[in-house]
């Protein structure tokens, strides 16, 4: 099998891995409400935290970030040419999961894991940006947006390959697009802070 076909198979496998929503898996395992049924409705760690179950949120975060990192790490080990495509595919899997009618999360944790796989310094710089903004302002969405804006710059500064920088730009753009409703709430002063419980609408 040629390299192009192997890369395509790797991307498909990464997409399927990305389609596993750990917010839903963890919530079911811990007998918590479906994360799509309360708060923001987003199947992600920040929304799971609104249940008051910190462990569930941590496990969700670890799972979603871990699948992003694992997909890219495996590609780097066995099929280096496929790394950029795998990074994008696992992220797209989280956003548009085939197992959940293509209705997925916003991709912050999975993007972080994928960026760590692409380049540890890139991932750490992006995560550090998220932590700093989140600590100062306590808005997960704002931290994600600022991190997304800086990630392509970090990738360029670290001199990643052109196609890897291009993938980081695409991931950042999609992440910002997925936060378009959060942007409206931030501008309107209606965004919920990290850890705050939001009643189901």
Describe the SSE topology.
Elements: H1 3-18, H2 22-29, H3 45-48, H4 54-78, H5 83-95, H6 108-118, H7 120-137, H8 140-157, H9 162-178, H10 180-187
Helix pairs in contact: 1-4, 1-5, 2-4, 4-5, 4-6, 5-6, 5-9, 6-7, 6-9, 7-8, 8-9
Element order, helices and strands? HHHHHHHHHH
As for the number of domains, it is: 1
Low-confidence blocks of residues: none
- Provide the gyration radius in Å: 16 Å
Q: What percent strand?
A: under 5%
Number of strands: 0
Question: How is this structure best described in words?
Answer:
With 201 residues, the protein is mainly alpha-helical. It has one domain (3-97, 106-187). The chain is 69% helix and 0% strand. The protein has helices at residues 3-18, 22-29, 45-48, 54-78, 83-95, 108-118, 120-137, 140-157, 162-178, 180-187. Helix 6 (108-118) packs antiparallel against helix 7 and helix 6 (108-118) runs antiparallel to helix 9 (162-178).
Quick tags:
globular, 69% helix, 201 residues, mainly alpha
């Amino acid at each position: 099998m040629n390299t192009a076909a192997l890369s395509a198979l790797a991307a498909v496998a990464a997409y399927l891995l990305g389609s596993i929503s750990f917010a839903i898996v963890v919530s079911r395992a811990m007998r918590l409400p479906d994360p799509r049924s309360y708060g923001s409705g987003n199947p992600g760690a920040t929304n799971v935290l609104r249940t008051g179950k910190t462990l569930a949120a941590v496990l969700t975060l670890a799972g979603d970030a871990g699948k992003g990192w694992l997909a890219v790490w495996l590609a780097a080990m066995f099929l280096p040419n496929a790394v950029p495509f795998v990074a994008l595919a696992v992220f797209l899997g989280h956003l548009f999961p085939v197992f959940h009618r293509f209705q997925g999360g916003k991709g912050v944790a999975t993007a972080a894991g994928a960026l760590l796989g692409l380049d540890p310094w890139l991932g750490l710089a992006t995560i550090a940006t998220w932590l700093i903004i989140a600590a100062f302002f306590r808005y997960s969405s704002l931290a994600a947006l600022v991190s997304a804006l800086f990630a392509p710059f970090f990738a360029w500064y670290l001199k990643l390959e052109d196609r890897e920088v291009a993938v980081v730009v695409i991931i950042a753009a999609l992440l910002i697009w997925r936060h378009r409703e959060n942007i409206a709430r931030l501008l309107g002063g209606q965004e919920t802070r990290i850890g705050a419980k939001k009643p189901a609408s």
